[in-house]
Amino acid sequence: MIDHLDGRVIVLLAREPRIGVLEMSRRLGVARGTVQARLDRLQSNGVIRGFGPEVDPAALGYPVTAFATLQIRQGQGADVRAHLATVPEVLELHTTTGSGDMLCRLVARSNADLQRVIDRVVGFDGIVRASTAIVMENPVPLRIIPLVEQAAQAARERDGRAERSADSRTDRPE
Amino acid sequence: MIDHLDGRVIVLLAREPRIGVLEMSRRLGVARGTVQARLDRLQSNGVIRGFGPEVDPAALGYPVTAFATLQIRQGQGADVRAHLATVPEVLELHTTTGSGDMLCRLVARSNADLQRVIDRVVGFDGIVRASTAIVMENPVPLRIIPLVEQAAQAARERDGRAERSADSRTDRPE
DNA sequence: TATTCGCTGGGCAATGTGCTCAGTGGTATG
DNA sequence: CATACCACTGAGCACATTGCCCAGCGAATA
Predict the structure, then answer these.
(1) Of residues B18 and B66, which shows the higher confidence score?
(2) If we measure between CA atoms, which residue out of A48, A69, A146 comes closest to residue B91?
(3) N or C terminus: which one in chain A shows less Cβ crowding within 10 Å?
């Protein structure tokens, strides 16, 4: 999937997002064209979806986050999805196995405002029941780097010794 | 919190992340320095946390996503948090109100692999029970733009008519 | 009225970008 | 074994962008 150099590119990019290709090539000890090519490949692979700004809902005035588990009336799934997509406070929606049918992440301006949001969310015919859990703390914010490092490490071991020699040239660790 | 111009900056940045400040200023019809200043302010405000690459776990070889609700033994919260932070497959962790005590997002290489991940997650003393919901579909991937637009619109209405005249040129308020 | 603040529009040197090229060493294919 | 292919290197080039400076302007504020 991705090799060790790819991993280092991603990690570096995650740490200093506004870094340029040239500076990256210097840090990684490879040629500029190589970094360029890796980046292009990672993006066309879909490994890197984009570089959108990470916006903090709290700073936007929505400090309350909650997760709602929804039970859907049979056959209404598509309508419910479309409905939820129109609610800006619904940041994310998944269909799941288990007791609930859908799980969505909500934000609101306050606990009181959350009531309004939930009313809007469940105020739709196909939704039978909703159970909500308000987020108090977020000890591990959404992260990907540990997984990238694990994937890169796995690649290193998979391609293993065969790469070692080339490795010392193309993939020097920092 | 943010005004209309801030909103446009964020939306534009979300749509074309690799765009430069100069090109932005052209698109938005304002001076380069203005965009520069707005961006700096948004970042120091914490509205924009960063521009980290968005990595797709599926493309990394982790196509299975799940949400686990954990029940924690009283007083073991801190230990559990520390434990979960060491598991790369734990992408996110929240403490919540409601029947569970924590909610975490997991990824795995397969359904079978998910078992391994869950075993690792719950294989820790402080965790009493875990209930897992596997994600089937993701009709609304994590998004923020609708919320940004709503916040920007709210600002526009809040500062309202008073700003109208200036608006067409400077797009001010805060 | 004087001050402050945000925005404009311009100019400047330094830097980075997109692009191209030849050369090299591994790896697969015939 | 020879060949083609692929990824990487290192270099060069024209061009655009950046970071930084400035003076001027209008509106809000004291």
Answers:
(1) B66
(2) A146
(3) C
Closest-CA distance, B140 to chain A, in angstroms, reads 5
Residue type, B3: D
Full residue range of the structural domain in which residue B19 is found: 1-54
- What's the number of domains chain B is made of? 2
Residue A75, class by beta-carbon neighbours within 10 Å (0-12 exposed, 13-18 middle, 19+ buried)? Answer: exposed
pLDDT band at B142 (very low <50, low <70, confident <90, very high): very high
What CATH number did the domain enclosing B29 receive?
A: 1.10.10.10
Among A17, A52, A95, the residue with its CB nearest the CB of B137 is A95
A52 is written with which tokens? 């959108």
Do residue A29 and residue A89 come from a single domain?
Answer: no
Out of A51, A69, A154, the one facing B51 most closely (by C-beta) is: A51
Same domain, yes or no, for B74 and B47?
no
Q: From the candidates B4, B60, B131, which should be mutated to test the interface with A, based on the most A CB atoms within 10 A? A: B60
pLDDT of residue A157: 79
Query: Residues of chain B with pLDDT > 90: what percent?
Result: 84
